[in-house]
Design brief:
It is elongated, with a radius of gyration of 14 Å. The protein has a two-stranded antiparallel ribbon with strand order 1-2. It starts with 9 loop residues before the first helix and ends in a 5-residue tail after the last strand. It is α+β, with helices and mostly antiparallel strands and 49 residues long. It is 27% helix and 35% strand. The chain has one domain.
């Protein structure tokens, strides 16, 4: 069974890229339901030496 490729909304891609670009340490979590991005979470960490 071949999976159909779905297009991601350019606005959503921009949000994902922005979230990754802003974080120095942490995580970007993307939640997907029914092949659609429904949530983007940013978990930031501050590191002290």
């Amino acid at each position: 069974m071949k999976e159909e490729k779905k297009q991601i909304d350019p606005k959503v891609l921009d949000e994902i890229i922005e979230a990754i670009a802003k974080i120095k340490y942490g995580e970007v979590v993307i939640t997907v339901h029914d092949a659609k991005v429904v949530q983007i979470e940013e978990k930031r960490k501050k590191r002290f030496n």
